[in-house]
Amino acid sequence: MFYNSNTQPPASIVKWTSGVAGPAVTEWVNAASPADTFTISGGTTEEPRGIALDSSGCVYLSAYDAGKPERAILVFDRDLNSTDQRLILDATDSMDYRVYGIALDAANRLYVLYYSPNHDAERVKVFDASSTWSPAHTATPLSTLDIALTGSPPHEGICVNSDGSVLWVSSRSTRTVTRYIGSPEVGYSLDSGFSLDLDDRGGWEGFKGMDLSADEARLFIADDTDGAERILIVDATSGAILPETFSSTGQGATNPFDVKLDPTGNAYVAQYVESRVEKYAWQEPSPTPTPRPSRPEVRALWVTRWDYTTPADVASIAANARNYNFNILLFQVRGNATAFYQSSLEPWAWELTGSDPSTLGTDPGWNPLAVACAEAHARGMELHAYMNVFPAWKETIPPPPSVNQLWNTHNDWFMQDVNGNVMWPQDWWTYWYTFIDPGVPAVKQYLHDVFLEVATDYAVDGLHYDYIRYPHEVGDWAYNATSVARFEALYGAPPSSLPAEWREWKRTQITEIVDAIYPDAEAVNPQIKISAAVVRGWSSAYNNYAQDYRAWLSQGILDMEIPMLYIQDPVAFSDYVSDHLANCYGRWVIPGLGAHNTDTATLLQLIDISRTLGAQGVALFAYSSLFPGHSPNAKADALLTGPFHDWVEVPEMPWKGGNVAGWRTY
């Protein structure tokens, strides 16, 4: 049997006892024909949200806003007949609160999750078993846990283990779960060893109801995050995402509000938009993938500008990468309008000669890009110049005024806010980049010349763009005076009056830069590969960052996109990669994986998923996460004995004139 609550008037609880067999392991339970429904008296104010079953089969229901000031827990027997028991929840509590999730432990103690309507307080209270309640019982809690507010509430889901020694609380808006340890008798404290924070997607919805597996090892979470509706399964002790995580959208069902497990491990998912419940049967996780027969693929490794300061460092980087069967180095040589190579346009980076910007422009006595090209080519690897595009400074102090750096020479090129303030670190992002504005024509020409200088003067096999977008994560800085004037001259109105045209105009400014560089770089070296690190979600990239990489691919001005998929969820990862592959217009998709934030087993699994889905390879961020201090770690060794067990060449790009079938550009 399965019960769930209906929050829409008339408020009710619904019970199902059987389902209709559906595809694969799913049984669909149609909410149009439940076994029984009980409408709660009044029907319009109680709004049940949380539901729980005790060991005798009685149904407990939280009345979300039960006709203030009386908030209550209602109790029904297993056939949904109302009992006389009704727990009145602290009418004298100083906090104006509402009731959301509830849970019961094996002793039938009740755990109630509260939050205030103005979102300034949240707490969990624990009450004794209902066998002690009078018909209209006002209880004193056994203990109270005030939840530390991180981000915006509300927390909606609560789960407890059998003896009440562990609590888990989920947040809808911040997509986090926190774990508390203790007991109802002495109270609870935060468990810092548990970590689950996936606040990396747009939209309001997020984590909701939860349940614990019978062995108390796995936590099942209803994740209603926009575009990734699924049941998230995590290690109940650490919060690590497990490969058993499954999508709840496979049969068209979306918006999971709650998940509950039966004694055999089957998962029942309440889908609130479709008003139905789905049953999923348990399946064992897939075994660790075994090495596949080798074939050409991209195995790229990002090397940041902080990974080297000497020629010996670069030699060690190249040697480690080749010994562990990487075939492309994405070697960073431009951070913020400073160069890690001899340039006629930009000053030497200060990181090569000192510990602060006072040495900006000082010749280090060696050329990192030239050395990297030689070291990579000597080992049969490709060297791609990894270059930040729009960042033009990144310090809390300006560059030395005597140095010809863009902040000093072309401050009018930098991005500005709507009030005309030049972009500079604020009190809420004290150490980040300042960007030059692509809407300034001189910026377009300057960046074209910077990239063409590298393609012309150095034996690079590719150019790799990073930060080729607007800096949405730190606010709206698109209002450089020249950019706004150009837009107004074109449309006869300010950006605020034409928001859709303004967004498209910004996308066009970036695309024009990509379009200008590509043919001129190809004219210098017809085999040069042009790639970009891109925002993983298309909607966010297109609407928030003005990064129209689908246009670049479709127009043939980008050879490979590397979406920054620094996530650990295999289901969401598969969805992202599939979307990129479906919209790549015959060019390459190289999923970018976070070696810095992904455990070894998951990293190997994501590589296997990328291959299975048909990606042309993978890129790993970054060198220091695999070779700290230039010494390979266990994660690097796992790559060498697993998916990178032998050397493969980089595939040929048919549109570059390689000796393979395919359409070519002329």
CATH-scheme architecture of the largest domain: Alpha-Beta Barrel
Shape estimate: elongated
The termini sit apart by 65 Å
Give the rounded overall mean pLDDT.
83
User: How many strands, what sense, and barrel or not for the largest sheet?
Assistant: 8 strands, parallel, barrel
Total strand count, please? Answer: 37
- Tally the helices: what do you get? 12
Which blocks of ≥5 consecutive residues have pLDDT under 50?
Answer: 6-46, 65-70, 249-253, 659-666
Radius of gyration from the alpha-carbon trace, in angstroms: 29 Å
Strand sequence of the main sheet, in spatial order? 27-28-29-32-33-34-36-37
CATH secondary-structure class of the largest domain? Alpha Beta
Proportion of residues in helical segments: 10-25%
Descriptive notes:
This protein folds into 2 domains: 2-280, Neuraminidase, CATH 2.120.10; 298-656, Alpha-Beta Barrel (TIM Barrel). By secondary structure, the protein is of the alpha/beta class. Helix 1 (311-323) runs parallel beside helix 2 (368-378), helix 4 (441-457) runs parallel beside helix 6 (499-524) and helix 9 (570-582) runs parallel beside helix 10. The strands form 8 sheets. Strands 27-28-29-32-33-34-36-37 form an 8-stranded parallel barrel, surrounded by 5 helices. Strands 3-4-26-25-24 form a 5-stranded antiparallel β-sheet, with no helix packed on it. It contains 12 helices and 37 strands.
Tell me briefly what this model is.
The chain is of the alpha/beta class. It has twelve helices and 37 strands. Strand 1 and strand 2 form a beta hairpin.
